[in-house]
Specification:
Helix content of chain B: 25-40%
CATH topology of the largest domain in chain A: Rossmann fold
Number of strands of chain B: 4
Radius of gyration of chain B: 34 Å
Structural class of chain A: alpha/beta
Largest sheet of chain A: 7 strands, mixed
Oligomer: heterodimer
Number of helices of chain A: 11
Number of strands of chain A: 7
Strand order of the largest sheet of chain B: 2-1-4-3
Number of domains of chain B: 2
Largest interface: A-B, 28 and 27 residues
Distance between the termini of chain B: 52 Å
Radius of gyration of chain A: 27 Å
Structural class of chain B: alpha+beta
CATH architecture of the largest domain in chain A: 3-Layer(aba) Sandwich
Distance between the termini of chain A: 89 Å
Order of helices and strands of chain B: HHEEEE
Shape of chain B: rod-shaped
CATH superfamily of the largest domain in chain A: Peptidyl-tRNA hydrolase
Order of helices and strands of chain A: HHHHHHHEEEHEEHEHHE
Helix content of chain A: 55-70%
Strand content of chain B: 25-35%
Chain lengths: 367, 107
Amino acid sequence: MSSTITDWISAISQLAFLVIFLLLFMGFNQKFQIYVSSRNIKLKLGVLERMMNESQSKTASYMRNLGLEQPEKVMEKGINYFVIEPVNIEPTDIIKRMDVLFSTREERLEGLVKEALPNAGKVERSLASTALEISAALTFVYKYVRHLLITGQKTNNWILIMQLEMVLPMIIKQAEAYSKALDVFLEGKPIGDGAGPLLVQRIVGPSATPIEIVKDTVYYESQIDNRKVYLIKASGPESNVGHPGFAVEELLKKLGERNEKVGMIITVDAALKLEGENTGEVAEGAGAAIGDAGPEKIRIERAASINGIPLHAVIVKMGMEEAILTMKKEICDAVDVALERIKELIKKVPEGHSIIIAGIGNSVGIL
Amino acid sequence: MLALKASAQMFGNNTLLSPEVQGILTLILMAISLTFLYYVMMQMQPKKSQDNFETVTVIKCLGDGGSAEERPFQKGDFVGKIVGECADKAQKVIYAIYERKVEVKKP
C-alpha cells in the first residue's frame, strides 16, 4: 500500500517537473512575473487614484466655499492644461520662447481662477490656483502610471512592467508628499521652500513697505552694517513664487539709472539635501540659487555678469517633501544661521555700495 | 519535491520512519521555512513613522528684546502679521510658524 502511494507521488512529481520545465522554455515565468507585477502595480495605482480623487474633491470643495457653484468645469480645464516644450535642438532665443510659454500658462491659469472666483481675495485665489496645480500633478501621475501599466500589459513588455514596479514606491512617496502639501497650502501655512522669503521678512520686519517691481514680486529697502540693502521676494502671504530673476534685472536697471553701485548679489533658497545630510544645514556657494526651468536663473546670472557683480548663493538644505510641506523648526532656525552668513558676506562689500538679496521661494504664509 | 526525494534517500527504505511520515515531516519543514521567509520579508519592510507633529505660531513683541509666546496655528496666521500691541506699546507680530514633533507621553 505504502509503496503504491510513493510510486504515485514520484510519478506526479516527475510529471510536475516536466510540465514546469516545458513552461519555463515557453516563457511562462515571464508571463507569471508580469501577472504578479501587474497585480502589485494595480494595487498601488489604486492608492494613486485615491490621492487624485481626494485632491480633486478638496480643491472643488475649497472653490465651492469661495462661492463657485460648479467648480468641475474650471477644474477640468485646469487639470488638463498642458505646456508644449519649446524646440531645444536649436537653442537660439530659447529663453525668450520659454518666457512666452510660461507667461501664457500663468496668465491663462490665473485668468481661469480669477474668472471663476471674482469675489475671492488675492490670497484665496492664489491658494485655489496652487490647489488646482497640485490636483493636476496628481492626476497626471495617476494617468501616466496607468498608461505605462496598460502599455506593458498590451505588449507583454516584461521589462517595462518590472521597471515600473521598481520605481513605483518612489513615485508613491512623491505623490503622497503632494497630497499632504495640498492641505498645507489650503491652510496657508509657510512651507520649507519659503526659507528665502522668511529670511527677507526677518530682515525687514512687518512694518516695511513693499514696492512691487515686477508681477507678484516685491522689494524692500533696508540697512545692514551701514550698507544699503535691497531685498527681493515674492509677494505674500499668498502662494506665489514671483519672478525674482526679472526683479533682479529690473532693480539693477533702476539702480543703474540712479548711478548707484551694487557690490554684491546674494540669492537665498531652499536646496535639496543629499540623503544622510541634516535638514536645515546652511551652505554658501557661488551662482544663482534658484530652481526654475531657466528664464529666472539666467536673468540673475546675466545681470550679474554684465554689471560685473559678484554672485553669491546661500542655501538651506532640506528634503523634497520638506520643501513642499509645513516648514519644520529646523528650517526656521536655519534661517537665522543663513542670516549670519549673509551678514558676514555683506562685510566684504565696500561701504557706499549697495547689496541685492533675493529670497527665492514660495511666500505662502509669509508677508 | 526535491526535499522530499532527498529526505527519502537520506532515511533509506529501512529506517524507523515510513515514507508517509517522511513526507509529512518534509511538508512541515517546508511550512516552517516559508513562515520564516515571510517573517523575514515582513521585517525588511520599512516601518511607518508613528511621530506626531503640530504646527505652532510664535508671537513676539518687537520692542522688549524678543519675548516670545507660542500657540497652536490658526487659519489666517502668517509670518509678519501684526496681532496686537505689547505692554510697552511695541507691535506684537507673528515671528514664525513651524511644525515640530510632539513628545508622546507614555502612560
